[in-house]
Amino acid sequence: MNNENTHNANRSHMYDTKARISIPSYDALFAMIQSYFRVQLDGGDASLLVIGAGGGNELTAWGPANPAWSFTGIDISEEMLKIAQYKANQLRLENRVNLIHGTIDELPATDEKFDAASCILVLHFIPDVQEKLKLLRTINAHLKPGAPFVLVSAFGDRDSKELQNRLHIWKSFWLDAGDEASSVDEMVNKALMSLSFLSDEHIEKLLTEAGFTNITRFYTTGLFGGWMSTAAL
Prior knowledge:
Blueprint (H helix, E strand, L loop, with lengths): L2 H20 L3 H16 L4 E6 L5 H6 L6 E7 L2 H13 L6 E5 L14 E5 L8 H13 L6 E7 L6 H16 L4 H11 L8 H10 L3 E9 L2 E7 L3
Parallel strand pairs: 1-2, 1-4, 2-3, 4-5
Antiparallel strand pairs: 5-7, 6-7
Helix pairs in contact: 1-4, 6-7
């Protein structure tokens, strides 16, 4: 293994480890989404749009077991996309994966629309509500009518006692994994609290305004929620 592959393998391992501490049911989440997509796509050839594909976990979770699926992944982080490409290469998925550095606006102009899309752990990094809505509307515009879409995001009313209680529970995941209390507090104060939290009602309103229907929250763990929906007909 050359130096670049070693670097990407180490970063991949670190990213995957942290994701599974932050979201203890991380693997179950991807398994649930796969089940939903499989039923909706009815076992045929399908093109999937992956927003926030850096890290490559959508590729590793869904690629090997679904040989008729192809993936177009977008991420603003070039370093994270290197991890995704490394995973695609390791799993020999290169012929079914196209990774794009940038935002959804970098998608090539085409009349072809996607059969499904995911936006997992991205929305809470977008501070402006109108920019969140713009992203969701653009995803909808790139989907075939009735195509399945899954959104996973941190959620909650920042000023509520309920979110503070969930924060305490979330911190326990890291403490139990061996992190020092001071480093966990720093992570909450500097990183986590910089995220753009919206209530679940507000997220569902944005999905509706973006044109999605059949909006259903199917997943909740710690600080994060997941919603299934379908693109406008």
